[in-house]
Amino acid sequence: DIQMTQSPSSLSASVGDRVTITCRASQSIAYYLNWYQHKPGKAPKLLIFGASGLQSGVPSRFSGSGYGTDFTLTISSLQPEDFATYYCQQSYSTPRVTFGQGTRLDIK
Amino acid sequence: QVQLVESGGGLVTPGGSLRLSCAASGFTFSDYYMSWIRQAPGKGLEWVSYITSDSTVYYADSVKGRFTISRDNTRSSVYLQMNSLRADDMAVYYCARDSAVAGARFDLWGQGTLVTVSS
Questions:
Q1: Angle at the Cα of A90 (from B102 to A8), degrees rounded to 5?
Q2: Interface of chain B against chain A, CB under 8 Å?
Q3: How far apart are CA B91 and CA B103, in angstroms?
Q4: Residues B24-56: tens digit of each pLDDT
Q5: pLDDT tens sequence across A15-26
Q6: Parallel, antiparallel, or unpaired for β A98-99 and A85-90?
Q7: Buried b / exposed e along B60-88 (16+ C-beta atoms within 10 A)
Q8: Given CB atoms, is A102 within the 8 Å cutoff of chain B?
């Protein structure tokens, strides 16, 4: 299985901050990397697909980058509604996809 | 309205069975591959099973031989039959739609249904 490792596991930040979350794959996955936002009691939400594609309806403050094994999700200016847990997911080995362990983003 | 709605979760004793359902609406269900993904308490997301539009199926090693995924395109529904349930199967189970042609991309999720395994 392809292992996905996110860092940090948790992060405290303030409204307006620029935040970056990193995801590393245990082998090259080209650009087959998606990012999700998950709030408690809610359905996960697709933010970024194909490493850098912005899902329809997602604010432009979210962006993704990377290729191969190293990827980042950046939120350019944190808004109150952005406090959530973020997951990366590799789709290189579809259908046997794997997720990172998650990054919890809290209000400082 | 484009949505997925799961049902069928509940309390079951170890070794028991449960059947989860996921009803789709607002889109052409038969065009999409579907997955079940779970989240155990305090843990991250874990892929469980996957079914193509023509019902080719795949399972995570942790559930292979115990869980069965199926779909009924006439009812716009996907199902997960779970047998021989164990404590580590306890989780919120989500169904999710794969919108990608290559490389699974889950663009629509249900709200989840909770499965509790306890004696």
A1: 155
A2: 33, 35, 44-47, 50, 58, 60, 94, 96, 100, 102-107, 109-112
A3: 25
A4: 999 999 999 999 999 999 999 999 999 999 999
A5: 999 999 999 999
A6: antiparallel
A7: beebeeebebebebeebbbbbebeebeee
A8: yes
Retrieve residue B20's tokens: 């989860």
b/e map A46-66, b = 16+ CB within 10 Å: bbbbbbbeebeebeeebbbeb
Put simply, whether A87 touches B (Cβ < 8 Å) is yes
CB A11 within 8 A of CB A20: no
Structure tokens at B32: 């999409």
Closest CA to B97 of B37, B7, B19, B9: B37
What are A51's two structure tokens? 């490493």
pLDDT digits 0-9 by tens, B94-113: 999 998 877 899 999 999 99
User: For residues A71-91, b (16+ Cβ closer than 10 Å) or e, as one string?
Assistant: bbbebeebeeebbbbbbbbbb
